[in-house]
């Protein structure tokens, strides 16, 4: 992702820590210990951070969450999710992609009252919120707003989600989609929303046969 300590105005890179409070290693597992603690005693946290003015450190990404799309572009999904979180329709967002596909898709847990207000303004009738979330017009409106937010944030072309699925259920620790620190559990989310992800890539492969393959 080209994070470097030479970045200006804010140096960026993996956060490493060292000191007497750092653990000495994994019990009877030298291989895993060497993966996280280097020969100089620095613990590599796997978090990507940047130094702000005044010596403040901000975490902006996770090293292990970075993945590559089919055409070789590297994606930092948490960065994109943080951008889409500014969308008025988005309560929570899970961005997915892999090396078999050339585009991203997103699962959006909707801001229910905002979506209802939009439907009322458009004169759209529905029996329940689930039906509204499945309405192509609702999905198109949410994706259009996400696109606008993405352009404001200057996302690169391949960082835009090309398909979206709207859900009413929030991501929680109870349904296994969030960690205790409220980060998305990506493998679990991929499995939980597997059918929706497959359906989105199938739709994309029909509309853009050269840009997507079934996941």
What would you report as the Rg, rounded to the nearest angstrom? 20 Å
Strand content: 15-25%
Order of helices and strands: EHEEEEHEEHHHEHH
Percentage of residues in helical conformation:
25-40%
Using brief descriptors, characterize the structure shown.
215 residues, three-stranded mixed beta sheet, disordered C terminus
Give an account of the 3D structure:
With about 220 residues, the chain is α+β, with helices and mostly antiparallel strands. It is built from 7 helices and 8 strands, in the order βαββββαββαααβαα. The strands form 3 sheets. It has a 3-stranded antiparallel β-sheet. Strands 6-7-8 form a 3-stranded mixed β-sheet, sandwiched between helices. A hairpin with a 7-residue loop joins strand 6 (about 90-95) and strand 7. The chain is elongated and about 65 Å long. It starts with 11 loop residues before the first strand and ends in an 8-residue tail after the last helix.
Write the layout of secondary structure elements.
Elements lengths: L11 E6 L12 H7 L6 E9 L5 E6 L4 E2 L5 E2 L1 H8 L5 E7 L7 E7 L1 H11 L6 H6 L1 H17 L8 E7 L18 H7 L1 H14 L8
Parallel strand pairs: 7-8
Antiparallel strand pairs: 1-2, 2-3, 4-5, 6-7
Please give a quick description of this structure.
This protein is an alpha+beta fold and 215 residues long.
């Amino acid at each position: 992702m080209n994070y470097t300590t030479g970045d200006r105005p804010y140096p960026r890179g993996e956060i490493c820590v060292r000191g007497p409070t750092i653990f000495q290693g994994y019990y009877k597992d030298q291989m895993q210990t060497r993966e996280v603690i280097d020969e100089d005693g620095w613990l590599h946290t796997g978090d990507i951070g940047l130094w702000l003015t005044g010596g403040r450190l901000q975490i902006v990404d996770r090293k292990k969450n970075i993945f590559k799309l089919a055409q070789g572009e590297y994606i930092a999904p948490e960065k994109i999710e943080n951008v889409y979180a500014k969308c008025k329709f988005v309560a929570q967002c899970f961005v997915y992609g892999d090396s078999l596909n050339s585009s991203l898709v997103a699962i959006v847990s909707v801001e229910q009252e905002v979506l209802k207000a939009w439907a009322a303004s458009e004169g759209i009738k529905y029996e329940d919120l689930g039906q509204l979330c499945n309405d192509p017009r609702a999905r198109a409106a949410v994706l259009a707003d996400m696109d606008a937010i993405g352009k404001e944030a200057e996302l690169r072309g391949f960082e835009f989600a090309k398909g979206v699925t709207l859900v009413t259920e929030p991501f929680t620790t109870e349904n296994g989609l969030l960690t205790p620190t409220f980060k998305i559990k990506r493998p679990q989310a991929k499995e939980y929303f597997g059918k929706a992800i497959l359906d989105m890539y199938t739709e994309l492969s029909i509309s853009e046969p050269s840009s997507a393959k079934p996941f």
